[in-house]
Specification:
Its EC number is 2.7.7.-. The chain has about 325 residues and is an alpha/beta fold. Helix content is about 45%, strand content about 10%. The chain starts with 14 loop residues before the first strand and ends in a 5-residue tail after the last helix. The structure holds adenosine-5'-triphosphate.
Length: about 325
Amino acid sequence: MPATCSACGASPAALRRPKTGHALCRACFLAAFEEETHQAIVAGRLFRPGETVAIGASGGKDSTVLAYLLQLLDQRHGYGLRLLLLSVDEGIAGYRDASLAAVRRHQRRSGLPLHVVSYRQLYGWSMDRIARHLGPRNNCTFCGVFRRQALDRGALLMGADKIATGHNADDVAETVLMNFLRGDVGRLRRGAGAGPAGEGAVPRCKPLRHAYEKEIVLYAYFQGLDYFSTECVYAPQAYRGYARALLKELEAARPSAVADLGHSRERLSLRSDLRMPARGTCQRCGYVASQPLNRICQVPMVDSGSELIESHGAQSVAEKKKHFSS
Ligand SMILES: Nc1ncnc2c1ncn2[C@@H]1O[C@H](COP(=O)(O)OP(=O)(O)OP(=O)(O)O)[C@@H](O)[C@H]1O
């Protein structure tokens, strides 16, 4: 590594940027990362003044950096946002309880309001209980559908106009790879944009979708941010892990592979006569569905316990509100 920072030419270089290869000092790296995130927000028109934004806070590095950065950039550039932290407790012992503790620590430091919604309260089931019914496979698929809806419902109850998630460039590239490998054209078309996405009740955006995971880790490190870094106990079974391993190999050979995959998806052109899955509403619960019943209402264990359907579909919003903690 060169002795001096290639940006300021004065301070000693502290790192080589994984994204660009530039050798930078700590201050120049932090400034570049913050400015790039601001530019992504401005170019993507992700927010409007006066909006209430619920930040999906998992306690992991990405959403911790996102929450920190949005607060910093909002103050610096006067976006005029009302920022909130929104966490979903899936009920995964030894994982989510510890990561929620990290969210609460961030909440205390930042002063941002925090709301927690749980699967148990919303659906009557914890993810651990679902996993016992389903066995080791498909847990991440179900959990993803449950979480998407839980974030929507939490955001609606908090009066949020938008949900911001910490998805980064590696997440986007993995998703593109996975959808290619599965031939899932519907998700390829709608899955990797900056948002607002068309799915769900509340528009979503991903302000860090151009940020490399390695740089997010470096940013968190240099800012001394406190986050939870253990993988979910169900993740090793997920197909996404293969896409992640493949991406790491590709990145080692060519670092731009991460960004290039995201760009490929954006520029992808699909045949005009291609039939896309219709998006409607679930006949049972009324939330987004591409089939008569959405994935949650199709969970096989509903036969062995109607609790899930009843608590998911039959409660009024007023009844559900009393379940939410703040
Ligand atoms: N339990 C949750 N509660 C609230 N938001 C969540 C939760 N899980 C995921 N998200 C949101 O979705 C994004 C991507 O999810 P992913 O599963 O990659 O998160 P993670 O790896 O657990 O944590 P992070 O992305 O914060 O490092 C997160 O950055 C966060 O914004």
